[in-house]
Amino acid sequence: xxxxxxxxxxxxxxxxxxxxxxxxEAHKTFEQxxxxxxxxxxxxxxTFEQxxxxxxxxxxxxxxxxxxxxxxxxxxxxxxxxQIQKLQDYMNSIETNFADIRNDFRxxxxxxxxxxxxxxxxxxxxxxKKLNKQIRMIWYIDVIIVYCLGLGLxxxxxx
Length: 159
What we know:
By secondary structure, the chain is mainly α. It has one domain. It has helices spanning 9-115, 118-158.
C-alpha cells in the first residue's frame, strides 16, 4: 500500500471527507446567509417602492390642492378688482357731480340777490352750506370705503 502525505490512504480519505463536509457546511451557511440577505434586500426594496409611491401620490395631491387654492384666490382677486374698478368709477362720478354741484352753488349767491328778498337769500345760503356739508360727508365716506377695500385686498394678497 502506498502512504500519502497524511499517512495511510484511509486516513487521507477520512481527512478529505472532513474537508468536504466542512466545505459543504460552509457552502450551506453561505447560501443560507445569501438567501437571508436577498430576502431582506427584497423587503427593503418593496418598502422603499411603496413609500416612494405614497410620497409621490401625496405630493401630487398637495400640488393639485395648491393649484385649486391659487385658482380660488385668483378668482377672488378678479372679483375684488372688478368691484374696486366699479367703486372707482362710482367715486369718479360722485367727484364729477360734486364739482358740478359746487360750481352751481358758487354761482347761486351771485344770482339770488337779484331774484329774491334778502331774508330768503340767507335761508338759501344756509341750505346751500348744509348741502355742501352733506356732499363732503358723502365724499369722505366714499374715500374711507375705498381705503378699507384696499386694505382688504392687500390682506387677501398676503394670504
